[in-house]
Amino acid sequence: MKIGPKVYYRKTTGEVIYITSQVESPWAVETTKEEDMNFYPQLKGYDPAQVDVLKLGFDQYTEDFKRAKSYWVNPNTGKLEFVYIDGGSEADPVYQAPLTEQVSDLKKRQDSTEAALLALMDTTTTT
After folding, report:
1. Are residues 69 and 9 in the same domain?
2. pLDDT tens readout for residues 98-127
3. How confident is the model at residue 31 (pLDDT cuts 50, 70, 90)?
């Protein structure tokens, strides 16, 4: 079984408190927030009502975590955002969607634009 990591963060600020490791094992068992908060020393002492968790898929954002210099969970959207090594200054970091999602969105837009251009070329060559 493959279990992705979980990102524990403060609900109000989006500050990431702890990220569990992903696990690939036939004996792997999915755990609850309560179990994790009692097991991981990094989560002990936090009020469970003030902490939320974002479950990621196995290998989801692996490259983003490698390339990022920081990250947080946007409290307004509940989505993970990254500051990449080449983006923004230390004083004013620019958080953005994961690069993997940005590339996927750009590919969809490119496909849509190409389809529109082909349709336009079709109508202009047949008239």
Report:
1. yes
2. 778 887 888 888 888 887 888 888 887 766
3. very high
- Which residues neighbour 16 within 8 Å (Cβ) at sequence distance 6 or greater? 7, 8, 9, 71, 72, 73
- Nearest alpha carbon to residue 78 among 53, 104, 61: 53
Please tell me whether residues 22 and 63 are part of one structural domain.
Answer: yes
pLDDT-derived band at 78 (thresholds 50, 70, 90) equals very high
Query: 8 with 26, same domain?
Result: yes
55 and 77 assigned to the same domain:
yes
Same domain, 115 and 87: no
Residue 32 in tokens: 């609850």
The residue range of the domain holding 110 is: 98-127
DSSP letter for each residue of 62-120: HHHHHHEEEEEE-TTT--EEEEETTSS-SSS---B--HHHHHHHHHHHHHHHHHHHHHH
